[in-house]
Write a structure and sequence with these properties.
159 residues; 6 helices
Length: 159
């Protein structure tokens, strides 16, 4: 026996699609940026992850591998491999920490600085493409919001 629709029942309307979650949107932006960076950097033979590590060192020279891993949001093992590759390419160098000779500090070489300088305009253009439809105030608010969100997640969760 099949149920018949009641004549007085309103036809079912499809629900409007739900917007994606904020986490999903952030991840999609990150994936898009990484894909564009990988394409942009391909001629140099470095990846977006390697480029990111170099930019971290450009802002804050003299980090250990573990500190660089935390700043780049990768595991120490991944960063160890990355550091070895960048050192072989002559883009970074490791030297003993004067305060603790067992610790090695990582710094950019002149070649590393030159590589970053060579991509500065293209990376700035990619960033401009990403935020081109935003006003100056919206850009400032976005940067502030993203930096605060990053800082909030950098703190270890209570267990």
């Amino acid at each position: 026996m099949t149920a018949r629709p009641r004549p007085d029942a309103a036809p079912a309307r499809p629900l409007p699609p739900r917007p994606p979650s904020l986490l999903y949107a952030v991840k999609q932006v990150e994936l898009a940026v990484r894909a564009h960076l990988d394409e942009l950097l391909r001629p140099s033979g470095i990846t977006a992850l390697q480029y990111t590590a170099l930019t971290v060192l450009d802002r804050r020279d003299g980090l250990t591998t573990a500190e660089l891993a935390r700043s780049s949001f990768v595991t120490p093992q991944t960063m160890g491999d990355l550091v070895t590759t960048l050192e072989r390419r002559g883009l970074i160098e490791r030297s003993p920490d004067p305060g603790n000779r067992r610790r090695l500090l990582i710094g950019l070489t002149e070649a590393g600085h030159d590589l970053l300088a060579g991509f500065e305009g293209a990376v700035r253009a990619l960033e401009e493409r990403m935020v081109g439809d935003l006003s100056a105030g919206e850009r400032a608010a976005l940067a502030d919001s993203l930096n605060r969100a990053r800082a909030a997640l950098a703190v270890e969760p209570a267990r």
